[in-house]
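Researcher: Next entry in the queue.
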Amino acid sequence: MKLKNIVMNLLFIIISSAFNLAIFFVAYNKLTFPFLHEDQRMDNAPLIFSYVVSGFIVVSICMLLVAHLLNKLKA
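Model: Structure for this entry, 75 residues:
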């Protein structure tokens, strides 16, 4: 039983990390264009940061709700 909980928690962490990494890559690719200079990309950095952080918050809230529902179903 304890090993099952460890595996489920590890799987939960991996899925959450994959979603967060996908959010970062999508935001970075949408907001940085290949023809921008480095200083233009640095000017775009706060916009990228705001998209990424808000995406991380949404994913963490969703994962928290999923964890809560899974714990409710277990009990």
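Model: The first helix runs from residue 2 to 31.
Researcher: Noted, moving on.
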